[in-house]
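Subject: Protein record for review, amino acid sequence with backbone structure tokens
How to read it: Take the token row as a discrete description of the fold.
Enclosed: The protein record, placed directly beneath this head.
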Amino acid sequence: MSLNHIRPWRNIHRRKSRQIMVGNVPVGGDAPITVQTMTNTLTPDVKATLAQIRAAADAGADIVRVSVPDEDSSAALKEICAGSPVPIVADIHFHYKRGIEAAEAGAACLRINPGNIGSEARVREVIQAARDNNCSIRIGVNAGSLERHLLEKYGEPCPDAMVESGMDHIKILQDNDFHEFKISCKASDVFMAAAAYQQLADVTDAPIHLGITEAGGLMSGTIKSAIGMGSLLWAGIGDTIRVSLSADPVEEVRVGYEILKSLGLRHRGVNIISCPSCARQGFDVIKTVEILEERLEHIKTPMSLSIIGCVVNGPGEALMTDVGFTGGGNGAGMVYLAGQQSHKLGNDQMIDHIVEQVEAKAAELEAAAAAAE
């Protein structure tokens, strides 16, 4: 829960959900909202797949999903799970045996789609494999692959059909005394997805996996995901998220964290507050921020940095950040530390100096956190 007693308008009251485990990562309840992504390498290429998983984990991914479409992928999964720094979710479609094999290979969670996994009997076999191997399940409802009888009933994909599909599948798991599951109701249409998730949140206490599926490229997909998932998270709905982009999985993780950071739900790395720049700027704000984002990627400690081009808003923003730089005149600006004016600095020294200040502040915060433990 995000609580602020001084500024209550920032508060987000999360929906109460059960907590399950995905490997060693808790999902739901009072656990932090986790960030997921999915590999796009060929799963049998173990080296490439593990490299992508590690890059995603370095970017902050808590959980990574891997597609298991065939027997070769199942065979590779055991090595992938063993070598992964984060829990692996096996993505299963069409063939229930892949689900059984994935559970036996060490997957922490199975993602199954009720619209294409097969009969209830086959689903039961997957459930048993999950139970036997201490593996959770994600029920993955998708507007693009709803069961035929629901499409006939409702005439088209819609929130009601998606929620009914999800609840039907929840019943199968519960009838088999299996409760280690989470659920998603994804659609590429933001309105449909949001409406489905809102309905879903009212009818189950299962942890909810948020996503706007097939959202698009880096720019358009980020915007759709931020609107759809951001509004739901703001309403307290969502226990784990995946941003679905036609882009590098690392970008999905970055966008996911930025969505959570903007709502105060997760804090990781440097939150840069910067102006869009204008004719008043005392230095090239856009280029400076671009360089700083790259140079500060290695900082994992939550902290804030303001980069403002002039003195209109710069001093005010700097009062609320750990480190700040405000453009002035004559090729120099003002450095702020902990909200206070510290010293003037030439623009030509700015980037290296700011990186040093951020690194020093991060080390100070880490030391204080360690001493408090």
User: Anything to note?
Assistant: The radius of gyration is 23 Å. The chain has a mean pLDDT of 94. The longest strand covers residues 136-142. The chain is about 40% helix and 20% strand.
